[in-house]
UniProtKB/TrEMBL annotation, chains A, B:
Keywords: Hydrolase
Protein name: Phosphonoacetate hydrolase
EC number of this enzyme: 3.11.1.2
A molecular function GO annotation: phosphonoacetate hydrolase activity
InterPro entries, alphabetized: Alkaline_phosphatase_core_sf (IPR017850), Phosphodiest/P_Trfase (IPR002591), Phosphonoacetate_hydro (IPR012710), Phosphonoacetate_hydro_insert (IPR023116)
Domain of life: Bacteria
Keyword Hydrolase: yes
Species per Swiss-Prot/TrEMBL record: Chitinophaga silvisoli
Entry annotated with the keyword Hydrolase: yes
């Protein structure tokens, strides 16, 4: 098969692909500690070889450190301020509605995947959760499906209709290790069948929400990831991997969830009428109870933002509070989809709305979550040696959403 | 020899030591990436075994992420707000003097080392740089010396007078890998000679300031550290290790230092008269040019703190600005030794005072430094399995200055 090496540009970044398959993986929720533990126990031999031959370092993700925010950044190469996806939900003040942002109609930037397809690459996007598929495959000619809905993919809508035959297994349960492994297996099958030469494989973080890095379940999971990684490398792919966010335990010493209910706090201190949006909220709440370390506040009286912000920042467990303008600049947020205040919490603290908004009984085990500053730094892994320019770039303030740039442009001479 | 198992208390924390040697190491400047690289290339087999049998995780250091701040925290078990050491320098407004804080007279907390000695442990403190010795050995009965001044240690002042004979090598140059390795070798010699059973070994970060994690020089350095670690473990020690701070490249794409001169910026915008303190400044500037990612500002007119703080936070490269009260609370600073404003910069940016205050020509190679938020998270390594209580503690918001607590109390049943 011939692989297109035509260059293409998306959002001002030009990509000059080699005549080799490109595979980028988003290891959802992979705090660096997961790799550390699995490598220490010799459970990721292919990753180890990849690090020896290529690159491993830390990069800064987009905030809030949530899945769809960072996946959107990865496939566009730009920050949320540009692509507009800053959570699963935002509050549209003009419409007085809480709006779900899981559709491509909310995406304000083109994707490099669409541009690659237009340049002749055979592009495939495989995600664990269906919620990401629409955004990631926006305007893209190629294959795009989720593990979750693999059984119902059709040529007309997904560019493929035989996913289960291709992978040799039925669509997995979404709350499982297999939901992620299926994505990697599908990627391998597409690559080996010659049906794709430019792949984005986006996993899900059910396992990381549920198990700590050193748990046997985590080690087995990463060993299985490593097996698929080895297959991708054996097939001649240039592989880049990063994470959308890290993961930390958000628990009190007794193991119970360490939650601050921000709307309740504001109601009690300043009177009712403010609205707290938890942008981690989505239809899949079993593993985190819609609790993360980043919330957006819409005040009843926005003229009191400075006063209320100061009060919030004085509450133990809250570590950062920004007004809208500062959140736009420092946190790279789209001004019309953030709030009067943006609030982040400590490494072991999550922020909720009110107790009634969160079903903690849905949590299977202790609460592990993300969204804040302490899940911002994530690994960057590249299978091939970086050239001098990208070694310098990696030593600066490289971002997880530079992963396609590093994988494509960083490995050429 | 018999080892005391009497419990002791320092700053409200009780330590119940086992009848085994306790060795805590501060791997100065060891961003986790240094361990990752050395482990990936199989250069730290003893550390790998230690991780398999014990614990490796990430912990939050004290801010500013400087050496003496975090060393002071490690030996006291408390934050800078309590022990008072918040940099190498502070500005004493009452005296109108810039005061160096390298003496124990500035320490406001007792050390757990002194308490251990009082409980019958044979305590030894070995540091690379002389500047730390006075603080770390405050009120302590035992051995305390630096590699830098090893040749001049005397029984009366250091509890030892034969350091070079003991280690079999002369005192090393301070800007060298040997400055750190000498500390570990001395620790091993003291342990094996039965002259100490409770050791704190504090290295120096010249190598990390100079070399990136994957540099051959770094790999060789960490391999040599690993050799000493193996000796300590073979001698039966329970070993805990952490870092005082991480390390990041602070460079522009062309490799030149990425510096913002804060006093110059303030002079230009608000008129002369404000004073910027770079608390990284010390007599050893060759490797960082007194440039870090954290400065303290004393304003000519403190009533303008809010206005000037907002302006500073709007400057690209500056990521956090706090007034005094907020710095005291969120950054755990002593109120009387911080400024009207505390300013932190981005992962790849350092803050200076004015160009005249910094000799960039003294930098041997590209600038790598620390002091800010992106050097806050550091590894915690414990040679023995953690008990259930400390596994939960590790999964919370554990601190690098809990390292003695983890090493002593975390490994018992």
């Amino acid at each position: 098969m011939s692989i297109s090496t035509l260059s293409f540009t998306a959002n001002g970044i030009t990509y000059q692909p080699p005549a080799a398959p490109i595979v980028v993986i988003c290891l959802d929720g992979s705090a660096d500690e997961y790799l550390d533990a699995s490598l220490a126990f010799d459970r990721m031999p292919h990753l180890k070889k990849m690090i020896q031959q290529g690159y491993r370092g830390m990069v800064r993700g987009a905030l809030p450190s949530f899945t769809n925010v960072n996946n959107s950044s990865i496939v566009t190469g730009v920050a949320p301020a540009v692509h507009g996806i800053c959570g699963n939900f935002f509050y549209d003040a003009a419409l007085d509605q809480e709006v779900m942002m899981n559709a491509a109609s909310y995406l304000r930037a083109e994707t490099l995947l669409a541009a690659a397809a237009n340049a002749g690459r055979k592009v495939a996007v495989v995600t664990a959760k269906e919620k990401l598929r629409d955004i990631l495959s926006h305007n893209m000619q190629g294959i795009a499906f989720s593990a979750e809905k693999a059984a119902t993919a059709t040529i007309a809508t997904h560019g493929i209709d035989d996913v289960e035959q291709l992978t040799g297994q039925p669509a997995p349960a979404i709350y499982s290790a297999d939901a992620s492994l299926f994505v990697l297996r599908a990627g391998n099958a597409l690559l080996r069948a010659g049906r794709a030469d430019f792949l984005y494989l986006s996993l899900t973080d059910f396992m990381q929400h549920t198990y700590a890095p050193e748990a046997p379940e985590s080690l087995d999971f990463y060993a299985a990831i490593d097996h698929e990684l080895g297959q991708l490398l054996a097939a001649g792919a240039i592989v880049g991997a990063t994470a959308d966010h890290g993961m930390n335990a958000k628990q009190l010493p007794d193991g119970s969830p360490n939650v601050m209910y921000v709307e309740t706090l504001l109601d009690e201190q300043f009177g009712k009428g403010s609205r707290v949006i938890c942008p981690i909220t989505d239809p899949y709440v079993k593993h985190h109870g819609a609790l993360g370390s980043y919330v957006v506040v819409h005040l009843k009286d926005a003229s009191r933002a400075a006063e209320i912000g100061r009060w919030l920042l004085a509450q133990p467990g809250i570590t950062e509070v920004y007004d809208r303008d500062t959140a736009v600049r420092l946190l790279e947020q789209p001004a019309d989809r953030t709030g009067d205040l943006v609030v982040l919490s400590a490494r072991n603290v999550v922020l909720g709305r009110t107790p009634a908004h969160h079903d903690l009984s849905a949590l299977d085990s202790g609460l592990r979550s993300h969204g804040g500053r302490y899940e911002e730094m994530v690994p960057l892994l590249i299978s091939h040696p970086l050239n001098a320019i990208y070694m310098r770039k990696a030593a600066g303030d490289a971002r997880n959403f530079d992963v396609f740039d590093f994988t494509i442009n960083g490995t050429g001479q």
